[in-house]
From TrEMBL:
One of its GO terms (molecular function) is ribose-5-phosphate isomerase activity. It catalyses: aldehydo-D-ribose 5-phosphate = D-ribulose 5-phosphate. The lineage of its organism: Bacteria, Pseudomonadati, Pseudomonadota, Betaproteobacteria, Nitrosomonadales. Its EC number is 5.3.1.6. Pathway: Carbohydrate degradation; pentose phosphate pathway; D-ribose 5-phosphate from D-ribulose 5-phosphate (non-oxidative stage): step 1/1. GO terms for cellular component: cytosol. Catalyzes the reversible conversion of ribose-5-phosphate to ribulose 5-phosphate. The gene is rpiA. The active site is at E103 (proton acceptor). It comes from Nitrosomonas marina. It comes from the Bacteria. Substrate binds at T28, G29, S30, T31, D81, G82, A83, D84, K94, G95, G96, G97, K121. GO terms for biological process: D-ribose metabolic process; pentose-phosphate shunt, non-oxidative branch. This is Ribose-5-phosphate isomerase A. Keywords: Isomerase. Belongs to the ribose 5-phosphate isomerase family.
Length: 218
């Protein structure tokens, strides 16, 4: 299977993880887009969706799926999203699409995080993919200096502003052996809105697209 076919296969498999009559948390990116297309086929069975980005909200609405404000949601049984890297412990790097802050908020609310990726995303150690960090614009230089002290090489994502009006620093050169510790350390730097490590709240389940079909990892 090609990478794209693997993404479509895991998106289809994720439909098994939604409950009838519930609101679904929906991620951002090409794999999440395939999931939205699958969700459209069963839209009469769900009450609506919470979107993790403006792009996802638009795609959901284009399929006639109601987008609900997270503030009006008491219970979110499941959040379904892709990742840029994921380990066998289901720790992730996310934010390649720049939607990390809303993704982290929606996944924090969700009772279950189902990650859907093709096999290229599975790694033993996080960090080969540059770690995205959303930063308040006036703190950009300060945060970059702090990241250098942690051993990373920050690069400003050119021409990109997040849905929240902030900038992204993509941090190269990190070998993240303890993602929970690194996520917490980055959370302490003033000016960082969100870092793209999803380790303190990891995925609960990974649906991995492989040449042999969809594999499930817990
Ligand atoms: C967006 C994300 C995506 O989940 C991540 O970039 C994976 O994208 P794709 O499914 O296109 O490979 O975190 O902010």
């Amino acid at each position: 299977m090609t990478q794209d076919e693997q993404k479509r296969a895991v998106a289809a498999a994720a439909i098994e993880h939604i409950s009838i009559g519930s609101i679904i948390g929906v991620g951002t990116g090409s794999t999440a887009n395939y999931f939205i297309d699958e969700l459209a086929k069963v839209k009469h069975k769900i009450d609506g969706a919470v979107a993790s980005s403006d792009a996802t909200a638009k795609r959901l609405q284009s399929h006639g799926i109601e987008v609900i404000d997270l503030n009006n949601v008491d219970d979110l049984p499941v959040y379904i999203d892709g990742a840029d890297e994921i380990t066998p412990h289901l720790h992730m790097i996310k934010g390649g699409g720049g939607a990390l802050t809303r993704e982290k908020i929606v996944s924090a609310v969700a009772r279950k995080f189902v990650c859907i990726t093709d096999q290229s995303k599975l790694v033993d150690v996080l960090g080969n993919f540059p770690l995205p960090i959303e930063v308040i614009p006036m703190a950009r230089s300060y945060v970059a200096r702090e990241i250098l002290l942690l051993g990373g090489q920050p690069a400003l994502r050119q021409g990109f502003i997040t849905d929240n009006g902030n900038v992204i620093l993509d941090v190269h050169g990190l070998q993240i052996l303890n993602p929970v510790e690194m996520e917490s350390a980055l959370n302490q730097i003033t000016g960082i809105v969100t870092n793209g490590l999803f380790a303190r709240r990891a995925a609960d389940l990974l649906l991995l697209g492989t040449d042999e079909g969809v594999k499930t990892m817990h």
